[in-house]
Amino acid sequence: MACRLGIVYLPRQVCYNEELETHEMPGNAVLPAHNGMVITRNLQEWACLLPLDLPFATVERLLAWQTQCEEMICTTEVRCLVRTHGQVIREAEAAEVAELLQREDLSELKAQMVPAHEARHPAAWPKELNAAVEETLETEDPQPPEGIRACDWERVLTARREECADIEQLRRLGPQVQPGQIVAATDDVEVRRPERKSKLYIRTARIATREGFRYLSGCGETVLDQLYLLLLLCGGLHKWVTLLGDGARWIRRFLVERLAAFPHKELVLDWYHLVKKCYELTSMICRGRKAKASLMGRLIPRLWHGQVDEAIAQLEAYRAECRNEEKLDELIDYLTARKPYIVNYQERRAKRIYIGSGHAEKACDLIVARRQKHKGMHWSDATADGLAALKTLVLNRGWDLYWQDRKVLPLAVPA
Amino acid sequence: MSHLRVLICRVDDEASPDQMMELHSIDLPAVEPEQMPPETALDELETEVLAVGQDVMRHLMKSQWEEVDRLLVEAYQRRFSP
Predict the structure, then answer these.
(1) Rounded distance between C-alpha atoms, residue A251 and residue A260, angstroms
(2) Residue A51 in 3-state DSSP?
(3) CB neighbour burial string for A344-371, b if at least 16 within 10 angstroms, e if fewer
(4) Pair A185, A358: CB distance under 8 Å
(5) Alpha carbon distance A7, A68 (integer Å)
(6) Where exactly are the structural domains of chain B?
(7) How many CB atoms lie within 10 A of CB A189?
(8) What mean pLDDT comes out for the span B28-56?
(9) Per the CB < 8 Å rule, is A68 touching B55?
(10) Which helix (H) or strand (E) holds A188?
């Protein structure tokens, strides 16, 4: 037996049953099913917790150190435990999704969210800038003082004008989930498989309401079912649902197909991804850096104001000068396909409404990238998904429930 | 030179708890203060005590298991008439 005390050999007496002519070990009655080695749940918890942040070899060494046993469970066994528990979690999630999808009425249930708390130190400019801001705001045509970006300044002026906010409030302006709003940021992250040029895509999402938040992760369609159900359980049918993402096809399809019945919904193409795409493609479209800077200088302000048609017209007008017409068409197609989701970013930012999918990027980072995306790493599907499932459990504060009560954190609880 | 010893004993008769049967004895190494540099003395003591402590607990675990196994075997044997 492997336990927190180390490896302990447990002898069992063998009894001979003359009637049946069989040998039996009565001690087996209190042991779980095993193939010669039993690993206690306490040790399994350690073996699954440590690899969420540490390499498997380090986990093996730490477990040996913790138990004062030179040879404890090996890295292969640790991987196996991660896969097994990951699978248990995914199977429970799939079963719950299937059960909830069959229900006709979800009104007696509500989403199980992690309670949200006010940030202790919300992002703000340094206090030293307060005096300069106050002084500038007194002038007739206030310009942003040094250290404050123009887009932040717009927000400051809007808030000052509309809410007469004081300087401490102005320091900490930023988007917040509004009452009656659900913000769902979604993304996927690729993980290298052992096979050459083969990748596994793990989808992640972070759903936030005024009351709380919840992370989701997984491969395939189950995670989309979970997202759909969570939005329903949060009251998506009568709330304002904001979906934030990089504009990938599966996110657009989710909005159109799965959220068809949601009356107040929007998908916002993440501003960072939009600019990145333009930046990458204009490198191939333009002849030289100056030409690229010139085109970007005309394109980005249009997109910042949500003027997609004008941006496309700019690109069409550039056709004669471009060096790669195929890439120009690619960019035009990209913008055309995502036109409904390219909003007036300038206005939204000034009004402190979300324009980016930073929450989803952070979720990808926390759930997958930090552990699984380092140089030279590759993963089997089961291990990658197992680690993601366990990490999601930690982020949703469901770890203790799983290891102490053997229950997977449910999506829904009685309202 | 003296040293510490941890004993694991079994009390067979609850009525006479002072009568015990020794199951295991585990010795701690003798300490030599003059050989212990102040920078590492506590760390070494901690390591030694932890190693011995874990060993003691493994013996305890095994002894407890043997008791469980013995009771299960007795129960199994009772199912069959002699």
Answers:
(1) 13
(2) helix
(3) bbbebbbeebbbbbbbbbbbbebbbbeb
(4) yes
(5) 10
(6) 5-78
(7) 23
(8) 90
(9) yes
(10) strand A181-192
What's the rounded Cα separation, in Å, for the pair A2 and A251? 45
The CA distance from B82 to B79, in Å, is 10
Residue B21 burial by CB count (10 A; 0-12/13-18/19+): exposed, middle or buried? exposed
Binned at pLDDT 50, 70 and 90, residue A52 comes out as very high
Residue A262 to residue A192: CA distance in whole angstroms: 36
pLDDT tens profile A68-110: 888 888 999 999 999 999 999 999 999 999 999 999 889 899 9
pLDDT more than 90, % of chain A: 72
The Cα A197–Cα A220 span in angstroms is 19
Residue given tokens 């003395």 in the structure block? B41
A97 C-beta neighbours (distance < 10 Å), count: 19
- Give the integer Cα–Cα distance in Å for A156 and A252: 33
Nearest CA in chain A to B68: A27
Amino acid at A262: F
Residue A133 has pLDDT above 80, yes or no: no
Inform me whether the pLDDT recorded for A166 exceeds 90.
no
Query: Residue A294 carries which side chain, given as an amino acid letter?
Result: S
CB contact under 8 A, A5 and B75: no
In the numeric block, the tokens 């429970």 are attached to A92
- Taking the C-alpha atoms of residue A210 and residue A180, their distance in angstroms, rounded to an integer, is 8
Read off the tokens for A6: 């180390």
User: What is the pLDDT at residue A164?
Assistant: 66
Grouping H, G, I as helix, E, B as strand and the rest as coil, residue A253 is: helix
Domain boundaries defined on chain A: 127-171, 276-347
> Residue A333 has which token pair?
């197609």
A300 vs B: CB within 8 A: no
- Report d(CA B57, CA B74) in Å as an integer: 26
Task: Give A-chain residues touching B77 at CB under 8 angstroms.
Answer: 15
Instruction: In whole angstroms, give the CA distance from residue A313 to residue A271.
Output: 20
Mean pLDDT within A234-257: 94
Q: How far, in whole angstroms, is CA A115 from its chain's centroid?
A: 17
| C-beta of residue A362 within 8 angstroms of C-beta of residue A182 | no
Contact B61 A67 (CB under 8 A): no
∠ at Cα A213 (A210, A217), nearest 5°? Answer: 150
Query: What's the gap in Å between the CA of B42 and the closest CA on chain A?
Result: 17
pTM over 0.90: no
* Paired tokens of A316: 């069409």
Tally Cβ neighbours within 10 Å of residue A167. 15
User: Which of the residue ranges A1-10, A145-154, A161-170 would you say has the lowest mean pLDDT?
Assistant: A161-170
Gyration radius of chain B's alpha carbons: 19
Amino acid identity, position A196: R
Mean pLDDT of A359-365: 91
Q: What is the mean pLDDT of residues A221-239?
A: 95
Q: What is the largest CA-CA distance in chain B?
A: 67
